[in-house]
Design goal:
178 residues; 6-stranded mixed sheet; 10 strands; binds guanosine-5'-monophosphate
Length: 178
């Protein structure tokens, strides 16, 4: 991977640089440290894509907190299938807790809409969403994204945890499809 990256049949070009991503992640962590102080929040990390973002973010969260993981999936190749499957569920009691869902990218938002409904049925005190990327065009504001690094155009991206058919997660920069 250099300025361009060929993965299977697609070419990608460098789009968001590591230093800019890290600066935004730091800003988000600072805000969370203030907003969530004393609430002992539970961060629910949505696997697989959010693993690098969550790792960077949570290393900078200095307040007492817990971290859990769920695996949701609605994507095949470069398009959302629209069908959300909860693969690994949440086995914690979240009643009365402050929750921060950590997601790599919100595209149509359909994956999270369903998951947020499920969480709300479990009567948490509050549910916030932290995302590294948001595609506003496809999303249409279905729910508040409380902590966001970047809004991006409606083009497929890889890197920083995000894959194209399993490849491309292992990069500190984010690449956009050419
Ligand atoms: P949504 O349900 O919001 O349409 O899709 C959310 C999920 O689709 C994300 O968690 C991510 O796994 C995947 N996704 C959406 N857009 C992209 C993209 O541009 N690149 C990659 N690699 N995955 C994406």
């Amino acid at each position: 991977m250099g300025d361009t990256w060929k993965l299977k049949d697609k070419s990608f070009e460098k789009y968001l640089l590591e230093e800019d991503i890290q600066a935004k992640v730091k800003e988000l962590a600072s805000r969370i440290n203030i907003d969530m102080a004393g609430k002992k929040p539970l961060f629910i990390v949505v696997l697989n894509g959010a693993f690098i973002f969550a790792s960077d973010l949570l290393k900078l969260v200095t307040i007492d907190c817990e971290i859990a993981f769920v695996k949701l999936s609605s994507y095949q190749g470069t398009h959302s299938s629209g069908v959300v499957q909860q693969i690994i569920g949440l086995d914690l009691d979240i009643k009365g807790r402050s929750i921060v869902v950590v997601e790599d990218i919100v595209d149509t938002g359909l994956t999270l809409v369903r998951f947020l409904e499920t969480l709300r049925e479990m009567e948490p005190a509050e549910v916030k969403v932290a995302a590294c990327l948001l595609k506003p065009e496809a999303f249409g504001g279905k729910f508040p994204v409380d902590y966001l690094c970047f809004s991006i155009p409606n083009k497929f991206v890889v890197g920083y945890g995000l894959d194209y058919d399993g490849l491309g997660r292992n990069s500190s920069d984010i690449y956009q499809i050419v």
